[in-house]
């Protein structure tokens, strides 16, 4: 039985593996949702040294950095080495209406969790409307309809 040899197939497979591991090292998968008066951000940082995690806010940019260092095993023969090492970094531009000075952060089981409160001035509030002699209450942010 004759088999067709494609010299580029193996090269393509190896290149895909290399590029995929580079992409994995440069990304931080995340989930973001709103829970009442807070936004919650979960960022996967498996294997990151907690001492290297840095979260900061400058103007409206939230920056998260962490590092996973390479294992330095001596006199071993690696059979597979797929876990990315290096510095992870992600920047998010956040909108107005958040209390960026009150962000809290925890790191457990390889997941960084940031809790970002909604600023007081951005929360819905009731505005009293005067009409003639009878005051009426309308909730701000309610859809007209």
TrEMBL record:
Organism superkingdom: Bacteria
InterPro entries: A-crystallin/Hsp20_dom, HSP20-like_chaperone, Small_HSP
Domain called SHSP: residue spans: 21-132
Pfam families for the chain: HSP20
PANTHER family in the record: HEAT-SHOCK PROTEIN 20 FAMILY MEMBER (PTHR11527)
Entry similarity comment: Belongs to the small heat shock protein (HSP20) family.
Record-given protein name: HSP20 family protein
Protein's organism: Cellulomonas iranensis
């Amino acid at each position: 039985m004759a088999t067709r040899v494609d010299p580029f197939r193996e090269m393509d497979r190896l290149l895909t593996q290399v590029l995929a591991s580079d992409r994995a090292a440069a990304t931080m998968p995340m989930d973001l949702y709103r829970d009442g008066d807070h936004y919650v951000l979960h960022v996967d940082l498996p294997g990151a040294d907690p001492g290297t995690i840095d979260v900061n806010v400058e103007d409206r940019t939230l920056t998260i950095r962490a590092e996973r260092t390479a294992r330095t095993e001596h006199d071993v023969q690696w059979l597979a080495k797929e876990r990315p090492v290096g510095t992870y970094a992600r920047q998010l531009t956040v909108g107005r209406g958040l209390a960026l000075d009150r962000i809290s952060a925890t790191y457990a089981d390889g997941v960084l969790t940031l809790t970002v409160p909604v600023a007081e001035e951005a929360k819905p509030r009731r505005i009293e409307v005067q009409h003639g002699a009878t005051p009426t209450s309308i909730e701000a942010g309610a859809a007209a309809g």
